[in-house]
Every structure is written in structure tokens, then in C-alpha cells.
Amino acid sequence: xxxxxxxxxxxxxxxxxxxxxxxxxxxxxxxxxxxxxxxxxxxxxxxxxxxxxxxxxxxxxxxxxxxxxxxxxxxxxxxxxxxxxxxxxxxxxxxxxxxxxxxxxxxxxxxxxxxxxxxxxxxxxxxxxxxxxxxxxxxxxxxxxxxxxxxxxxxxxxxxxxxxxxxxxxxxxxxxxxxxxxxxxxxxxxxxxxxxxxxxxxxxxxxxxxxxxxxxxxxxxxxxxxxxxxxxxxxxxxxxxxxxx
Length: 245
Prior knowledge:
The chain is an alpha/beta fold. The protein contains 8 helices and 11 strands. It is globular and about 55 Å long. The termini are far apart. Mean pLDDT is 90; it is low at 1-6 and 9-21.
């Protein structure tokens, strides 16, 4: 009888050992104001898009699962300060209101072009022509190149919850101008007839985007940084981008 129980006991010990070695998912932040093609959010969950593919693949390459935490941008900032997010991708240092010393910056993996956008019949403009206008913006998003105009009251922010809603309000004529990144504008225009598509009127900025990775014993920090470099060198990042263009 004792001999029969021995194999079962060994199996239990092996099972406990395997459970102990299981590692928790890596926590990636997802800002709820993003829109396609960056990310699709359904019922509060990220389901597809450039950042969905990038982050799930990045976790896979270091042998972990990705937990995509959807939340407002201001809450992302608070959790970063407390070290409760492992990876934040699609960010530029100028967008942050404070340094995060417990995190390491990755190499940039793409460039985001932010544009002043108008309806199809609007003429090109410059920033000097914006005073007195209301500008469609995303709630909680930072626009460093416009801060002086906002602070002085020369330009009024008209916030919407997501980038897609900003463009929908522009299309509906709620204001003349809005800010959008180039990829989201192109995605939004895919659903419009050519004569109604929104157009870029001026380039606001071109920012190199990176990931912030928490530098802690429970995070494979260096492996994640190397994996992102490898994905760029191997063409994986370009392949992800091309799927949504």
C-alpha cells in the first residue's frame, strides 16, 4: 500500500513545485482614450490593435502572459508612481509630468506624428492662427507644444473621452480644429467617403515613442528591453504596423 502511495505523493510534490514556479502576468497599462488602430477596447477590455499585438507579443517573447490594464491616463500616472505597472508602452518623456526612477526606458520603436486636423474643406493653418479657437483634444492627454496657448487662454481645450470621439465631434462640426495622431486619422477616414474625409492642416509634433519597463526583481527588465530591440530588428514591429494600415 505504501508503495502505491509513493508515486501519487511524488506527483503532488511535482505539481506544487510547478505551481510555485508559475510567474504572474506582466501588467501593461492601456490608456482608455486611445483609439484604433492603436487599440480596440470592448467592454473595458483591450481586444486588438497595434499596441495589443505589440504588448502581448513582447510578453510572449519573455515567457510571460500580458495583463492589459485599461484605465484613464491620470490613473496610469498614479500607478506608475507607485510601481504598480510593469510596462507602459507608447510614451515619450515629454508627456510625463514627473520622472519615474524605478523604470527604465527602452529604445524608441516608432514615431508618432500629431496633427492639427480639420474637415475636408478647411485650409492649411499654422499655430499662429489658432488663438480664439476651440481645439478638440482627448481628456487627460498632454500636448506639450500647445501648453502655452492653453495656459494663456488663447486656445480652449474641448475634451472628449477618446481620440475617436474627438474626430467624430470634428466631423459633426462641433469645432473647426482638433488634434489627432496620423495613424488614428487614417483609420478614421477609412469609414468616410472621400469627399467627407478629415484632413491634416498642420503638423504639431513628431515624437519618438518608447516603453517604460519597471526595474525590479519580479520583472524581466533586461529581457523585455532586448526583446523589443529584436522585434524591431527582425521586422516584427513593421509587420504589426502594416496589419493596421
